[in-house]
């Protein structure tokens, strides 16, 4: 069934945050310009790689794995940039720390939801294995069991995962956080904020695609309008238009599932199911044999792909967790020297 498309959300609801790198205020040294350009050029190249060579690749497990790998690389790059900026935690504005900690915990929650869904989908492999095992025999009892296993697989795959329900609201809050905190008199801080902006844009895009694919709701896709004043804007816009456009087209076809390999298995199951009669055996032997072989091959491909993707999501989770732990550890070390969380009134700031 065709899903109504939501209007594009405004990207800069509070003005253009890139004005923070204007001539007013702290100037960027050649070194800082070089660091920022290197980061943004790498991000642009990464976004271009997410442009599918074939539109049929969109929402394939291979493309989703590539998207998660790309996201992991970008988050690793921002950690490297922070080190190269030589900007100690003691110089971080509290707003930056608040934003980072808030976003990181939301991303951890989303990773847990995605991992839960991948695990749930993987559990369906057992039903297909049972069906394939029973289909090796043409006895009435075995065929009935195979039919039951195929029906159980469809019911399992078609069920909803309650862990995904909060992903849309989390994504909404991440979009709201895209307006950057103001940076005063800190050239390094301005570079950090602009780089983090790019990280957040790619993160929102990838996570919204995963949420739409897993939830089966095209309205969960997000379209972000990036200012063309930034180096990677064109690469992002081109990629977003192609990927989101194709995903919406897939949804409009009313498929059982929008995940490519999962849909391929479902197609074979639908072809095989009517060939299995209630206790009388397959009607068309050749068609049965072909579907049986095809199901085994596609099922194996599906569940290998799910395993690989689950490892990438787990890797992303670990990157976010390690970055968060490192920041909290540094803050605790700084706290032994001088408490950076004390307001003028002496009250402790709780995060």
UniProtKB/TrEMBL annotation:
Family stated for the protein in its record: Belongs to the ROH1 family.
Record-linked InterPro entries: ROH1-like (IPR008511)
Organism annotation: Dovyalis caffra
Keyword Membrane: yes
Record Pfam families: ROH1-like
Main location (coarse class): membrane
The name this protein goes by in its record: BPS1-like protein
Subcellular location: Membrane
Membrane topology of the entry: Single-pass membrane protein
Keywords per UniProt: Membrane, Transmembrane, Transmembrane helix
GO annotation, cellular component aspect: membrane
PANTHER family assigned to the protein according to its UniProt record, in alphabetical order: BPS1-LIKE PROTEIN
């Amino acid at each position: 069934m065709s899903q109504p498309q939501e209007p594009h959300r405004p990207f800069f609801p509070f003005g253009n945050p890139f004005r923070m790198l204007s001539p007013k205020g702290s100037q960027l040294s050649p070194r800082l310009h070089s660091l920022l350009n290197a980061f943004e050029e790498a991000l642009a190249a990464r976004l271009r790689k997410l442009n599918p060579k074939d539109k049929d690749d969109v929402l394939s497990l291979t493309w989703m794995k590539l998207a998660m790998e790309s996201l992991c690389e970008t988050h690793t790059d921002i950690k490297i940039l922070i080190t190269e900026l030589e900007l100690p935690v003691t110089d971080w504005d509290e707003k930056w720390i608040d934003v980072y900690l808030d976003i990181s915990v939301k991303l951890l929650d989303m990773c847990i939801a995605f991992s839960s869904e991948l695990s749930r989908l993987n559990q369906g492999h057992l039903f297909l294995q049972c069906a394939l095992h029973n289909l090796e025999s043409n006895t009435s009892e075995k065929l009935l069991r195979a039919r039951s296993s195929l029906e159980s697989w469809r019911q399992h795959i078609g069920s909803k995962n309650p862990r995904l329900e909060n992903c849309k609201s989390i994504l909404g809050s991440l979009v709201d956080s895209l307006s950057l905190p103001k940076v005063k008199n800190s050239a390094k801080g301005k570079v950090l904020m602009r780089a983090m902006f790019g990280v957040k844009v790619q993160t929102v895009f990838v996570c919204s695609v995963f949420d739409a694919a897993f939830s089966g709701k095209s309205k969960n896709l997000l379209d972000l309008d990036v200012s063309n004043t930034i180096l990677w804007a064109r690469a992002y816009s081109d990629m977003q238009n192609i990927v989101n456009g194709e995903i919406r087209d897939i949804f409009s076809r009313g498929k059982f599932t929008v995940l490519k390999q999962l849909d391929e298995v479902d197609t074979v199951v639908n072809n095989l199911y009517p060939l299995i009669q209630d206790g009388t055996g397959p009607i068309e032997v050749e068609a049965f044999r072909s579907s049986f072989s095809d199901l085994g091959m596609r099922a194996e491909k599906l569940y290998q792909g799910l395993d690989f993707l689950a490892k990438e999501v787990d890797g992303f989770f670990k990157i976010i967790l390690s970055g968060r732990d490192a920041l909290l550890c540094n803050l605790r070390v700084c706290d032994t020297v001088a408490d950076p969380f004390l307001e003028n009134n002496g009250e402790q700031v709780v995060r």
